[in-house]
Amino acid sequence: MSNAAFCTIVTRSHFKYAVALAASLQKYHPTLRLCVLIVDSGDDWKDLARHSIDLFRLDEIEVPDIDAMKIYFNAFELSNCLKPFFVAHLLRKGIQKVVYLDADILVVNEFDYLFEMLEQYAFVLSPHWLRPELVEHSDVSAREVADLGIYNGGMWGIRHVHCTMTALTWLMRFLPEFGFDDRQNGMFVDQKMLPLVAQLFSSQFRCIEHPGYNVGYWNLHERRITRIGNQYLVNDHPAIFFHLSGFRAEDPETFSLHSSWTFEKLPILREIVAEYVSHIPLEQVEHRYLYDYAGPLMLSPELRRHYFIHRTFANYPKVRLSRRVRRLVGSLLDRIPF
After folding, report:
1. pLDDT tens digits for 158-174?
2. What residues have CB less than 8 Å from 257, skipping those under 6 apart?
């Protein structure tokens, strides 16, 4: 597949997962590169170069309000908000088809079906569920899926046409404002915006229905995983990739922090995780996220939100004291019998 590329976005501390993603991709797409945007790359970014990986720094990408976004978004929020900016950057460089993948993914087959879809459609997304009759068996409730977003943000398929650039521009306009991980206020990074994109640009949008794509804890109830030799099958279809959301290399005995699925409950998960772990480079150095501080200030969630609203840290102590007083008064009033 010429003039195509995969991409992902990671912080420095999660670069090892991007290396693992690149290693599994190379087995099935040896001619394609993995473009990796390191959100908080430091002076050592050139030392991170790997075969089959093209590295990108944040200052190479056109993000108009990036200095403010580094402050008011946490690492998870910023990484997700940057997806349309990074994809658009790669398209402007002349790449015609871009597949964004989260770094916590193990590739086990070729993406030919997705690339074929991108011949006809400009924007392809992956749903959390495919089988309505099996919803009651899910590890994730219907309410939670509706709350998190009906499409999983861990995979985007993009073809470079005018409609796509318009859709990406729309996301680049709204994600810097609504890209928070704040489900109480109806926000969950890009996933809550993707259904809107699918509707507003429906003529060029398609939902992928191949069960072998984006197999994760949210759809294991409807995806029967088997293995014949070295090939994984999902519902008797070739498995393409497993999305190991919630897995951490530091705790390899836990399948996912977000799920009740365990190796005992579904033993084949242990084989999948073991293959993924085999691609993760051993790193002993801990990397602190560079944007957890603004000068001497440690950026708490409350301080980040204050900066988002006011674009300054001025008056933050007064605002914080006022909030504490209001909470205390409210608590006292609740105790008074009327």
Report:
1. 999 999 999 999 999 99
2. 246, 247, 248
Distances (CA, A) of 312 to 63, 65, 71: 20, 14, 10
What number does CATH give the domain 4-279? Answer: 3.90.550.10
Instruction: Note the pLDDT of residue 41.
Output: 83
The H or E element spanning position 111 is none
Cβ neighbours, 10 Å, residue 192: 22
Selection from 10, 74, 66, 44 nearest residue 292 by Cα: 74
Which positions ≥6 away from 172 have C-beta within 8 Å? 84, 85, 88
Residue 44: predicted pLDDT: 73
Query: Which strand (E) or helix (H) includes residue 24?
Result: helix 15-26
Tokens of 304: 């980040």
Residue 190 DSSP one-character state: B
Q: Is the pLDDT of residue 145 over 70?
A: yes
This prediction's pTM:
0.92
pLDDT tens-digit profile of 93-108?
999 999 999 999 999 9
Q: What dihedral do alpha carbons 142, 73, 59, 67 form, nearest 10°?
A: 150
DSSP H/E element including 249: none
Q: Count each helix (H run) and each strand (E run) in the chain, helices first.
A: 11, 16
> What would the pLDDT profile of 103-126 be if each residue is shown by its tens digit?
999 999 999 999 999 999 999 999
Domain ranges across the chain: 4-279, 300-335
